Amino acid sequence: MKEIYQKTVAKPIIFVGKGLHSGKISKITILPGEEDQGVIFKRVDLKDNNLIKANYKNVSSAVLCTTLENKHGVKVSTVEHLLAAFYISGIDNALVEINSQEIPIMDGSSKEFLKVINKTKIKKQNSKRKYLRILKKIKLIDGEREISLEPNKTSLEVDFQLDYNNKIIGNQRNIINFQTDNLDEIIEARTFCLFEDIEKIKKNGLAKGGSLDNAVVVAKDKILNVNGLRNNKEFVNHKILDLAGDFFLSGFRVEGSVKCYQGGHKLTNMFLRKLLSSNFIKLYSKNNEDAISKKNLSNYTKLAVNA
Hints:
This protein is α+β, with helices and mostly antiparallel strands. It has a domain at 5-129 and 289-306: Ribosomal Protein S5, domain 2 (2-Layer Sandwich), CATH 3.30.230. The chain has eight helices and 20 strands. The two termini are 33 Å apart.
């Protein structure tokens, strides 16, 4: 059943861990958010201009993670797994204080975030939750990669396909309905990489905190992690998890059927920019299904460019 009202955490939640790309230890404190606020990150290591709205307009980089940046150049990176945890747990509004630039990677999935969030009291708020309904199919093709979204009046459904030139990853596909399906295998799916790509990634200043404790590493025809995979479709399932987190940057709960081939953070952000500037969407709250104009839709995301 769809929730009518927005939700936030009832009390602070703290996580401490290493950043996947920075290698630095960071601490985040999730605090209750105001109604209609959405998710806002606050860099408590900085005194001024330290608020960053979780919104697709603020994505400044999508290379191996999603990085948000405000108009003052202040950033927060690797936000996708935490945002996916918020989406799955039903949290609409939160203030996330962080004492560094990068969200802790934890185990490389959303499992540890949700393990704690699901044990914490969630507070129902007075404002109604806003859903974004798709009225007509919209599609984006970028080289060999493509993503589309078709009408679905009940939920977000994701049909994702990966095609890797690797014996272990190979061609994986999964279809997940976020309203009706068991999401355990999505939640626990870890980020992954090919062993032969690690040196190149590190030369670019990334993955300084990467290890077998927070990523699945594939070397040709073998998985280097001692315990192997958590589920048979862990690779594509992690891509679905990433997409859920990145879609939450729309500022709303999207209703539609997604089909994605070889997608990632960059493709998803490109698609959200196209989607939210189109005439094929309708914003509504349950029991109040009046469509709003694009002008009014932009008012909901105005804070994104001002934060």
